[in-house]
Amino acid sequence: QGQLVESGGASVQTGGTLRLSCAASGITFSRYSGGWFLQVPGKEREAVATLHSLTGTTHYADSVKGRFTISRDNDKNMLFLQMDGLRPEDTGMYYCAAASAWVELVRKRPQYWGQGTQVTVSS
Prior knowledge:
It is a single chain. Helix content is 4%, strand content 49%. By secondary structure, the protein is mainly β. Strands 2, 4, 5, 6, 9, 10 and 11 form a seven-stranded mixed β-sheet that branches. Strands 1-3-8-7 form a four-stranded antiparallel β-sheet, with no helix packed on it. The longest helix is centred in the last third of the chain and has 5 residues, at 102-106. The N and C termini lie far apart (41 Å).
């Protein structure tokens, strides 16, 4: 049994910042690779950032490199996404995910999905 609960989504202006949080329960997050995904209505859910559970290696979509940072706090059993310099194209529903194997996260087949939190960016 495991659950991911997301928070931090909001409506902000272009250039603004947000920090998304994903609280895990029923699982020990440090044993899983974590990731954040963006989905726009009518489009496929795509990985924005991933974090390898063993090595701590991070990967980012080209569109967010230099602006977003994925991190974790194992003591709090949480995953975070720091979002700086937000742009309208960052708008959408953000989902966090946990996978036993990093490759499962990359393939968008994690063991756990969060419920999603909405981010809207306007000028």
